[in-house]
C-alpha cells in the first residue's frame, strides 16, 4: 500500500529497545514537527478550504500524538530530551523541487509530507510487530493506522492540486530517491535513524 521499495530490517527494533527513552523523545519531536508542518501548509495555502479543513484535523491529531508520547515518557519516569536533528527528513527536504508555480511547490510539499508519513507508518508497523513491550506494540499499531491515513491524505491532495505536475510520475521519483537514502538509516534508536 505504501509503495516503499525497502522495508526496515526488524533487527532495528533491537536497537530501539536498548534505549526506549531516545526513541520516545525522538518520536515526540517527530509528532511536533508533523503538527508544525500541517500548520505551515495551512498558513501558505489558506485559500484552499478543503485542504485547510483536513490539515487542521491532521495538526490536531499530530499534537495529540505528541501529548500521548510525552505522557508515555512521564509515565515511565524517563526524561523528555531536546529536539533531535532528523537527517532523513533533511535529505528528503533537499530533494524537493524549488522551482515552478505556487501550486507546483504545494504539490512538492505534499509529496514530501506523504513520504515522511509513509516511512513513519512503515517504522511503526515494524515496531508494533517486533517490540517486546506489549503496551508499546499496541501504541505503535494504533499510530501506524493514523500515519497511513495522513499519507493517503497528503498524496490525494497532491493529485488534486497538481496543475503542471504528473504526480504519479513525481511520486515514483520520490520513491526512488527515498530508496537510495533509506539504506543509510535504521541503525539508530530514532524513528527515521
TrEMBL record:
Where along the sequence do coiled-coil regions lie?
none
Per its UniProt record, what InterPro entries does this chain match? Answer: Ferritin-like, Ferritin-like_SF, tRNA-Hydrxlase_MiaE
- CDD domains reported for this sequence: MiaE
> Which Pfam families does this chain map to?
MiaE (PF06175)
Q: Name one GO molecular function term.
A: tRNA 2-(methylsulfanyl)-N(6)-isopentenyladenosine(37) hydroxylase activity
Q: Which is a GO BP term held by this UniProt record?
A: tRNA modification
Instruction: Supply the name of the protein.
Output: tRNA-(Ms[2]io[6]A)-hydroxylase
Where does this protein come from, organism-wise? Answer: Flavobacterium sufflavum
Amino acid at each position: 500500500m505504501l509503495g516503499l521499495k525497502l522495508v526496515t530490517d526488524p533487527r532495528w527494533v533491537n536497537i530501539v529497545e536498548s534505549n526506549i527513552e531516545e526513541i520516545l523523545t525522538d518520536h515526540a519531536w517527530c509528532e511536533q514537527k508533523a503538527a508544525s508542518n500541517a500548520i505551515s501548509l495551512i498558513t501558505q495555502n489558506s485559500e484552499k478550504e478543503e485542504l485547510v479543513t483536513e490539515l487542521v484535523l491532521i495538526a490536531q491529531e499530530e499534537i495529540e500524538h505528541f501529548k500521548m508520547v510525552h505522557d508515555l515518557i512521564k509515565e515511565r519516569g524517563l526524561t523528555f530530551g531536546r529536539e533531535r536533528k532528523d537527517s532523513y527528513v533533511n535529505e528528503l527536504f533537499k530533494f524537493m523541487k524549488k522551482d515552478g508555480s505556487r501550486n507546483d511547490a504545494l504539490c512538492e510539499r505534499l509529496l514530501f509530507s506523504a513520504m515522511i508519513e509513509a516511512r513513519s507508518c512503515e517504522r511503526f508497523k515494524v515496531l508494533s510487530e517486533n517490540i517486546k513491550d506489549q503496551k508499546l506494540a499496541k501504541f505503535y499499531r494504533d499510530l501506524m493506522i493514523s500515519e497511513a491515513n495522513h499519507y493517503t491524505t497528503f498524496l490525494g491532495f497532491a493529485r488534486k492540486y497538481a496543475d503542471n505536475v504528473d504526480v504519479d510520475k513525481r511520486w515514483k521519483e520520490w520513491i526512488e530517491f527515498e530508496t537510495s537514502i533509506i539504506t543509510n538509516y535504521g541503525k539508530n534508536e530514532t524513528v527515521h535513524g
